[in-house]
Amino acid sequence: MKISRRRFLSHVLGASMVGLTGYEAWRYFRPGQPPVSIAFPGKATGHAIRDARINVPAEIPRFSVNTVIVGSGAAALAAAWQLSRQGMQDYILLDGAERNGNNRGEQQFGVNYPTGAHYLPLPSPESEHIRELLSDLQLCQHGVYDERALLQVPNERLFYQQQWQNDLLPHTDADSKRFFQFVHRLSSQRGTDGKRLFTIPLDLASMDSQWRRLEKITFADWLEQQNYRSPTFLWYLDYCCRDDYGQGIRQISAWAGLHYFCARGNQQNEHGTIMTWPDGLNELSQRIRTFCRLHPVTGLADISLPRTQPYSINAFAVSIEEHNQGVRLLICTERQQYYWLEAQHAVCAMPLYIAAHVVKDIQQYGFKPDIHMPQYAPWIVANFLLRGFPAERKGSKLAWDNILYQGKGLGYVVATHQQIRQGPPAYTSFTAYTALNHDTPANVRRWMLSASTDEIYQCAAAELEQIYGVKLRRRMLQARLSLRGHAMAVPQPGYLSNQGLQSLRTYTGRLQFAHSDLSGYSIFEEACYWGKRAAVQILAQH
């Protein structure tokens, strides 16, 4: 059975948000209990931009640069990687709210752990851009992947009927057999245009209308039409969709549901081999920065001339305006310093719900926010820092990915799992992912802002406490919770025919758009594809 692909983002909460990465508050449940931190990455400045509450000084210095990349998530860093590998050095990357976006990682007690995206499946047949990237980053040489990055076993387990089993599918039945036989055939099937029906990146998939019409209905409706009735199997499919898309089978399109299982093709990678690191995709982001020789500065005055290497700055974009000669950007640094940047080119690697407030007259690009804006799923990513490990049930070994059957969350991963060969470390982190799809996204976001610390903790820790009971808190040193109200775009029915997204994908001016939102769902490979494409377009204009 393929490992569940929790490819949480690669979604860039880019440079249009606050340059504050610290946690907003330290709170406690009760005296003597471990401290709990609550973070809302980028919320303060994101809301300020949305509500036009930023006060801009009258006198602002101006600087010129060839290219500005707005954002520092997967799409932004992919654009930087492509510019650097083609020899361009005169560019500036704006780090924004979170350095490395949703690929960011942290360290506490000597433990590295992810605060968002935490693994990368091996590339699909069409993902040549990922193979190029991994080669440049010294993670794949001549088709051989760095074994230190390949997931160690035991890789996954499911808590089902009060015991652990080494398969995420509760049990095999007639429905599951029929479904997997179907998707196995579908994985290699091509449309009338000769392209595979389902691909990563999505931009290379077949446009065959016979199959594309499946995007008009929900996955749940299609499953019912096909007479899939098994409760355990339907739970498994719903889990996979929540895990990858932030919403379940009743919210996503049938096309997206099948894409999850078919897009990687019938490869030798039958067991879902993936690459992962203790701090997740933060490792990839840092490797890209090293490859690009990105030099961090606190202000534009620190940039020397002539520019012989690219720079990164902890700043966000307040406004972006394209004109005939280039792109004008107003940026604000972490120190509240404002600058006008006059660029020949710019890459807008921000999520669209922020870009809509930053890019001047975004409607001119064919994107109308009130009509074309994707829906975004809210998430909680919770890291529970532990001294040692709570005792496991007899006969079961802790795996990298651990899921509770019918749990409201998505289970938890063990940050130190890749150190398994070295013996158990003194400290670890259990990283729990919760896709909040029990209510509408808008209602969930309101709950996030009004809920108490205890309510948020109980939501994030419910599955862990059900499995470990008091043993968890006895080991816990800290709980660090990141609440992301707009974590990822959801591939709802109609997302493939979204004319606004299509317009942004095909635009080729001085300003390039690059974000996984353009694909309508959030994974590293899609973000990287659009980042590389934006850089290629810029290089072609020189």
Automatic annotation (TrEMBL):
Domain Amine oxidase residues, every copy: 77-539
InterPro entries given in the database record: Amino_oxidase, FAD/NAD-bd_sf, Zeta_carotene_desat/Oxidored
Coiled coil: none
Protein name: FAD-dependent oxidoreductase
